[in-house]
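Hey, I'm writing a tutorial for new members on how sequence and structure tokens pair up, and I'd like a real worked example in the thread rather than a made-up one. If someone can provide the structure for the chain below, I'll link this post from the tutorial.
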Amino acid sequence: MPATNLKWSKEKVLASDALLPLTIMERIATQVSPELTKQQLQQLLEKNEFKRSPILTRFLEFVVMTKLSGKEDEIKEYTIGLNALGRAADFNPQLDAIVRIHASRLRNVLVQYYQSDGKNDPIIISIPKGTYVPRFEPNGTEKVENLTPVIQNNSNEAVYEKTLPLQNKKSSLPVLAILPFHDLSPEKSSDDFLTALGEQLSTELARFDNLSIISFYVTQNLHESVDYLKDLKREGINYVITGSLRLLNGTIRLNIQLMNIEDGSILWSSSFLRHELTDQNCVDIQDELVCQIANAVADDPSIRRSMNKTWQWPDMNAQDLTQEAITQYFDYTYDYNSKKFATTLSVMEHAYEKAGENALIVAILAKLYLDQYACAIEHDNTVFEKGMELAKKAVWLDSRSTHAQKALAWAHILSGNKRNGEEAIDRCIAVNPSAANSLSTMGLGLIMLGDYEKGCSMLHRSLKFQQTPSACAKLGFSLYYYQNKNYQESSKWLTLLSPFDVPFSRLLHIAVAGHLCGELETAESLVPTVKGFEIDIVDRIALTPALRTNIIDGWKLAGFMR
């Protein structure tokens, strides 16, 4: 397929209307018998796309047969995960996107089938957007001629879209495409796994709001070459992910590269090795690989900083302030060096004046104000209110923005309202259940609110996807172990916080040292500028009376508060 045939989706058309635009009266007049539907199902399952994918076979068979049995109200995300995809009884659809991911794959396969081999089949089986309940209707060939396959949007919902040439699309974000992975297995038997990997990776990356992702369907039949990479550049693609897979005797090795189209340089690469791959665990292994890759590419501050520096904004007037601000923010979040905070905040405030309707800019500025409120020496409620209002605005501008939901959740956490905080945390995680930075921030928030075990579990989950702990994860673990009276472990995590250095971390250090060493002669010298504000500083982070009391007890042991 030549590069000039690449398409970029623009006008969204609901799948339920685009696939089968029948009126209510037409639908009543064209009911399909259960026997014909079962015959159509069996015909579909005989196709190679389903024979190669037991997951899609079980998925389609479950939803079709459940509806035919008159139990369509039982077709839910949870029941599909449990009965078709082999998830355990504790499966949580908010934290595990497996059903949504394979629903998108299934929609793609069905559309492709009815555009080709099944074009003249008597019955169309479809799964419209926004539901997992299948639809059975008589085929009218004209209904499927103009469909393009399902594209993932940021909400991980499938939509059918009309298309425009890619080169006509000027994205306000760096554009990334996932190229087909090379199958280096001796028997070339990994095609289905690689296709699912590419589709799921594009889905997971689309959850992050700092990149624009080309659907894997658009690129999966293309060949990678030097000339082709130049063509991709002309089409507006800035970065590509590619790699290879080798499967031998149940051992899988996946090599991944993130490449800059501008000069062919490799911004990031990694190898993943997994043993004992089976039909039973392949989905779990795929989930793990995809989440680790997506976090490395889209959520690692050093990679985001590199991508933002090398990407040329389409609007050169916006480049001066907006790109500088985002680059500065990613540089700050790389190590959360407290000395960079004031500069980052100032640059972002100027960017907001220029791009006050940019959800990412608004969300970042909101988070910075809230961090300033939480970490400053003096209590400034005006700063908190500014952060809260901007966070609400960011969510209003883009409710599917990870940064926006994270900022709003952080605001509710700092308000001390446990119920509102936990609800906001759930909404944030639901937008992107595998974003390591969101998981670590929300995990810290839960610990601050007193939900220690759930918060610690979320922190450990963040480490699964991003091996280098964030500042929030380090502080969260330190507080968790402090509350559990494991002061050695608390001290270890607190030491790792550097260069993140704020009054609260110093005050916590004194409390930990008090339990480990007793009275400290140097306690006062560790926080020379906070005299009179100690309690207020701790109150803004330790939001439960029990945690506050434990910290004060540590101070007393250190001789800091008599």
